[in-house]
Amino acid sequence: xxxxxxxxxxxxxxxxxxxxxxxxxxxxxxxxxxxxxxxxxxxxxxxxxxxxxxxxxxxxxxxxxxxxxxxxxxxxxxxxxxxxxxxxxxxxxxxxxxxxxxxxxxxxxxxxxxxxxxxxxxxxxxxxxxxxxxxxxxxxxxxxxxxxxxxxxxxxxxxxxxxxxxxxxxxxxxxxxxxxxxxxxxxxxxxxxxxxxxxxxxxxxxxxxxxxxxxxxxxxxxxxx
Length: 225
Known about the structure:
This protein has six helices and nine strands.
């Protein structure tokens, strides 16, 4: 059993996720309409956010404990087998719209990173030998945490891996009227084979096209009219 998985992203007309200004209010406002209960974020995208938004506050004693009073907020699930977010997860823990982070690791994850997670009360699960098994990770989100609808707000690596493994049910795309050319990173560049889509909703918001696709015929419209 796995949740209904929706990939949500803002892209240029030629499919890039950077090289243009993203309207974060529009991006997250439309994400909220998808009515998901948890978010899957790639560690690479998490690191990129530090570069873009300067999310590198010094850790305080309060950061070493799970946040209180956020029971209605979504959990953020982060595959991070290599421990690349060591010493930086507290930046997300401070985000008011995040209940807390759950980290997905593998058998090769450094012991020091596991100690870091343990000492700060981050839930973590070992799901794979050399890297995180994404299929098992998505199943865990549903079976262990009761999530029925999962948002994927991430970059090319995680999105392509999920699509290539048949783990995505819908794509929600905000198309910005910009062509980035060679400068941008393409969201679907690493998808291993063609993926069939069916357009189920389309509308315009603030000069952007907002498109909702079913992947491989699984229909469940999610955007508000």
